[in-house]
Amino acid sequence: MSQATATGYRPVSDVLVMTGRSMRRSLRQVDNLLAGVFVPVMMMLLLTTVFGGAMNTGTFDYVDYVVPGVLLMCAGFGAAQVTMSVTYDVQQGIVSRFRTMNVLPSAVLIGHVVSALVRNMASLALATGVAVLIGFRPAAGLLDWLATAGILMFFILALSGMSALFGLLIKSVDAAYVPSFFFLFLPYVSSGFVPVETLPGWLQPIAEHQPMTPLIETVRSFLLGTPLGNNAWTAIAWCAGILLFSAIATSLVWRRLKR
């Protein structure tokens, strides 16, 4: 007899119910919904129309160069919203209530993560559309767009998983905003907005060996045709490592909270 049958859990149904709950709550929280939609658009407009005229990357128009970095930055910011949702559920005792019900325990967290994936992919699609309207001209074919969507989804899942972990650890809903600022500004120390070689010498090794640079270079390669090198495998390894660490750590923290 499977564990699902023995316990009475219905994993797929439970996850779908919790995902639907998270999506409905997102729609009711108009301020967070607007932030998730307008932050990507405003960052795109700010970096391309305000600062774009002063930037020279030497190869592409700045709007083409900067779009991959903006997409990754907005994906990270959106994924970090999971921290606030999970922290709210824990602090309000909602998680404790679900534990008294015949519901797969991890479905609560998985629902938050899947909901974040859906919301953020929709926001990124909107941001990409705005980028095209203001001059972004990708050279990508269908397979390149699918590969771009795949790496972005993997990145969002990885950071959403880590954000769920933060949500279990952070004790205050007010403090739950902190990870979103970290994820928002991490791409600035990467190849997202300027070539790495233009950064101060002491900062270049940090930019080269943090996860955002290979992720951005992978997306840039898919969309603009730049050399891919080992960036895709490095990006996948970073995302897989973050997701695996988050899953293990979240499981340990979750068990501690049950006691």
Explained architecture:
This protein has 259 residues and is mainly alpha-helical. It has one domain (3-258). The protein contains 12 helices and no strands. The chain has helices at 3-7, 11-28, 30-50, 62-79, 81-91, 94-99, 107-133, 142-169, 178-185, 204-208, 212-224, 231-258. The longest helix has 28 residues, at 142-169. The two termini are 27 Å apart.
Give short descriptive properties of this protein.
12 helices, 0% strand, 73% helix, disordered N terminus, 259 residues, single chain, mainly alpha
Brief characterization of the structure:
Helix content is 73%, strand content 0%. With 259 residues, it is mainly alpha-helical.
Number of strands: 0
Q: What average pLDDT do the residues reach?
A: 82
Radius of gyration: 19 Å
Largest sheet: none
Strand/helix succession: HHHHHHHHHHHH
Helical residue percent?
Answer: over 70%
Q: How many helices does DSSP assign?
A: 12
Unreliable residue runs: 1-6
Structural class: mainly alpha
Sheet-strand content, in percent, reads under 5%
Quickly count the domains: 1
Judging from the principal axes of the Cα atoms, what is the shape?
elongated
Distance N terminus to C terminus? 27 Å
